[in-house]
Design a protein that fits this description.
The chain has 321 residues and is an alpha/beta fold. The chain contains 14 helices and eleven strands. The chain has one domain: Rossmann fold (3-Layer(aba) Sandwich). A five-stranded parallel beta sheet has the order 2-5-8-1-9.
Length: 321
């Protein structure tokens, strides 16, 4: 290990009891979502880093199940919105209704007032409805009729979307994609995991049996611990090199923004914490980079590579110094 990449005074590791509870939480989710340890780990990193998660994959591979399992395991209040083409922004954030008895308007909160909001098949809604989530995801608040209302803390959005080539979908605009810290896919399970899935109980029965492994207070404490995980100047140099490479690559029209750099660094810190470390190493950055970067890259018109391939190229071509 390059000595420049690790400081002599990393942040102290979190409370061992919290580390054990965090490991138990991951294990519980992995018992429901079989054979997907890597995506589950990235989902936990996203939550600990204070970001929002986009799960993009085919129907029926466990996207919704993962969101339910996370909410139950982390003791978060849960709301699910099934996005459709006729949904309106008020269906998400709520609406003010006039009450004759009091001669006043009273705000009726929408499902967005939850610890974990599952925006199911988000790309089946129109861009106008998708945009209702922008302020909530960026600032953890909504504004209705000139009044600003805070959302729960923590507030975490898990959005699922089907591939855009499927019928009835509206591609998420880049401004909306940028609000998601990480994008992951689940893909088909391997044969062993699929066989275990077919032979086991119904997923809904397993979800009903889940118990909280972390309290809301513990989750907030872990988020604070993530913020104190050390990223050495040399590691920040590596992050900057990846950002610069994305902006100068011939096949990339729009590279990674400073906000993407912050998301990459925070996700790497959370990944390090999941290993029980108080400092980041390049492997943490590399582990989260595809999930943080790929959906933010915009290929040039002449590019023959997709976003995922471009993210892989950036990792391959950018050395660790």
């Amino acid at each position: 290990m390059n000595a420049r990449l690790v400081s002599a005074a990393p942040a102290p590791p979190p409370d061992p009891a919290l580390v054990v509870a965090l490991e138990r939480a991951q294990a519980q989710v992995n018992r429901v979502v079989l054979g997907k340890a890597a995506p589950v780990r990235l989902a936990f990193a996203c939550i600990l880093a204070g970001g929002h998660l986009l799960i993009e994959d085919l129907p029926g591979v466990g996207k919704t199940t993962l969101a339910h399992a996370l909410a139950a395991t982390l003791d978060l209040s849960f709301q699910r919105i099934q996005f459709t083409s006729d949904m309106l922004p008020a269906d998400i954030i709520g609406v003010s209704v006039y009450e004759r008895e009091t001669a006043q308007f009273r705000f009726h909160p929408g499902p967005i007032f939850a610890g974990l909001l599952l925006a199911d098949e988000i790309n089946r809604a129109t861009p106008k409805t998708q945009s209702a989530l922008l302020e909530a995801m960026a600032e953890q608040q909504i504004t209705v009729d000139g009044a600003t209302r805070k959302l729960p803390d923590p507030f975490f959005v898990v959005a699922t979307q089907n591939p855009v080539e499927l019928a009835g979908t509206y591609p998420l605009p880049d401004s909306q994609l940028d609000r998601f810290m990480l994008r992951i896919g689940l893909d088909y399970p391997d044969p062993a995991a699929e066989r275990a899935l077919l032979a086991s109980s119904d997923r809904r029965e397993l979800l009903a049996q889940l118990t909280p492994c972390l309290s809301t207070a513990q989750l907030v404490q872990l988020r604070g611990a993530v913020a104190s995980v050390l990223a050495s100047p040399a590691l920040i140099d590596y992050v900057q090199a990846l950002l610069a490479a994305s902006r100068s690559h011939a096949e990339i029209r729009v590279g990674l923004s400073p906000r993407a750099g912050l998301a990459l660094l925070n996700a790497a810190r959370a990944h390090a914490l999941l290993d029980g470390r108080g400092y980041c190493v390049p492997e943490d950055v590399q582990a989260v980079f595809p999930g943080v970067a790929a959906h933010r890259l915009i290929p040039s018109a002449s590019s023959n590579s997709g976003r995922d391939r471009l993210a892989a190229i950036l990792l391959e071509k950018t050395p660790v110094r």
